[in-house]
Design goal:
Layout lengths: L5 H7 L26 E8 H11 L13 H12 L8 E5 L6 E9 L3 H6 L3 H11 L8 E4 L5
Antiparallel strand pairs: 1-3, 1-4, 2-3
């Protein structure tokens, strides 16, 4: 499946916070012979939104001016989600749905494996991410194609 398949185009064309069933997604395959891109399901925060989160929840932390220097804020969000920093992939770099700039998607599920697809349906995981990020209950997560080189 090429990266320009109709299913992927449909996902990219969704509104900024519309969820779409992962049933049509295939499991991620990095092989160049049968490449299937990695998609993640969650909420994406651009740099402005990350800065606003930091100012509200962790104001003593040094401010940042690019995505590389936002790492302490990413780790603080992870700590609040999981109680401690984790080796799990809790975020991926994506394009923000509104401004198309680099954003961090805090993942609820993915097409990395079958368990990741099932996680995308987990209402408790969705609500936990909403609470930590300060996102209203009625704002739905969405699928994002992972950006390899921002």
């Amino acid at each position: 499946m090429s990266s320009d398949s109709p299913n992927q185009t449909a996902l990219e064309g969704q509104g900024p916070h519309e969820a779409k069933s992962p049933a049509h997604l295939q499991i991620y395959n990095p092989s160049p012979y049968n490449y299937i891109p990695l998609w993640v399901f969650g909420y994406a925060l651009n740099m402005e939104e990350m800065f606003a989160w930091q100012e509200k929840h962790d104001p003593q932390e040094k401010t940042f001016d690019d995505y590389h220097s936002s790492y302490p804020t990413l780790k603080e969000i992870e700590r609040r989600l999981y109680g401690k920093p984790t080796l799990l992939s809790t975020w991926e770099v994506v394009k923000h749905p509104i401004d198309k700039q680099v954003a961090f998607c805090f993942t609820i599920g993915s097409n990395r494996n079958q368990a990741g697809l099932e996680n995308a349906k987990n209402r408790l995981r969705i609500r936990k991410v909403q609470k930590v990020l300060g996102i209203e209950k009625d704002v739905k997560p969405r699928w994002y194609k992972v950006v390899k080189d921002p």
